[in-house]
Backbone:
């Protein structure tokens, strides 16, 4: 289970909508399974089909999480034109341990779909997203 | 030598400077070809991992490449 404040999930979806037709990406920090922060990242690929995070922004986000007593809980990105499920490339490049991967699909832009997964050694398991009001 | 690795104190047995590649191996970092390294605040080019030395007191951050595609 992954608990994400409604405001943070809405902000991720808004980022995906604003970035359309390109993929957008970012990180979420928190403790245990509760997300408390979001760090939008630059997709250095600037692509409709791929994303790659800017390493400088990644390091800055991780340090900010550490300073706030958080851990990296989620790596998120959008699929502008494909479903909210990890692609083969997503699975192959899911290298960071102990994080969830959240994907926002804009196949139907009027009704974005967000789903989360744990990906380890090529295995994909869905993770329930529980939205909550920010503390 | 004493280092700071991802914000935490770390010690390796070697007393003299070692290469970044050696350090990643000593720290048992898996899939090193997908790791990005920051040494004392500077992001290192992968091609420089072997030629870059790490010495006592240095601060190292490493992250896995984060990317994907549809």
Residues:
């Amino acid at each position: 289970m992954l608990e994400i404040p409604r405001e943070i999930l809405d902000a991720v979806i808004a980022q995906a909508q604003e970035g359309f037709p390109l993929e957008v990406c970012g990180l979420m920090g928190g403790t245990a399974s509760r997300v408390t922060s979001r760090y939008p990242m630059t997709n250095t690929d600037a692509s409709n089909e791929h994303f790659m995070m800017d390493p400088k922004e990644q390091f800055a986000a991780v340090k900010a999480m550490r300073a706030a007593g958080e851990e990296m809980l989620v790596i998120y990105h959008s699929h502008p034109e494909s479903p909210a499920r990890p692609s083969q490339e997503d699975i192959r490049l899911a290298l960071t341990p102990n994080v969830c991967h959240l994907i926002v699909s804009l196949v139907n832009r009027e009704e974005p779909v967000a789903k989360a997964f744990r990906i380890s050694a090529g295995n994909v398991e869905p993770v329930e997203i529980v939205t909550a009001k920010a503390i | 030598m004493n280092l700071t690795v991802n914000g935490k104190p770390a010690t390796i047995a070697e007393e003299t400077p070692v290469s970044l590649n050696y350090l990643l191996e000593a720290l048992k970092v898996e899939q090193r070809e997908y790791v990005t390294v920051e040494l004392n605040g500077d992001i290192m080019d992968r091609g420089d991992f072997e030629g870059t030395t790490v010495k006592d007191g240095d601060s190292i951050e490493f992250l896995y490449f984060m990317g994907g595609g549809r």
Remarks:
- The mean pLDDT of chain A is 96.
- Chain A has one domain: 2-132.
